[in-house]
Please model this.
Amino acid sequence: MQEKSFTVQSPLLKKLLADILGFLTAFLAVAAAASLGGFFSPGDWYRTLEKPTWNPPDWIFGPVWSFLYLSMAIAGGLLWVARRHQEKPVIPALLLFFVQLLLNALWTPLFFGLHWMGIAALEIVALNLTVFACCIIFWKVNRFASALFWPYWAWVTFASVLKITLYQMNS
Model:
């Protein structure tokens, strides 16, 4: 009796499996960055900081970031699927996607973990600029991926102003 091994022969099936793997990679990378927030919660230190009157209530951050992380993951998956279009800047877009994700993940331990408010303020400005660059370059690759990043950029812009204000008020 001859043993059959499983091989993916169909080019269409290979593309589909690669696309699924790309989406899963994007979702797992975003989930890893998002889960870092659980290790460095605001805690008592943050509650004792002097805050501006326009500081959002604590409960708003969870739903907003959940939406933004989901949007990031979908955008990352869409960029991966676009890799077959070689006339588009897919590789730079994917690299930028992972750079912003790294910057996103670094901010939480800098601010909430180490309480390095000044460095965290500089870092969030770098994140803001990187997310803005993502919005621009993603547009050239996949317009929906770009559209998913604009609310993220708006929130990080607001968060940048808030964190710089917190630093100024508490230095």
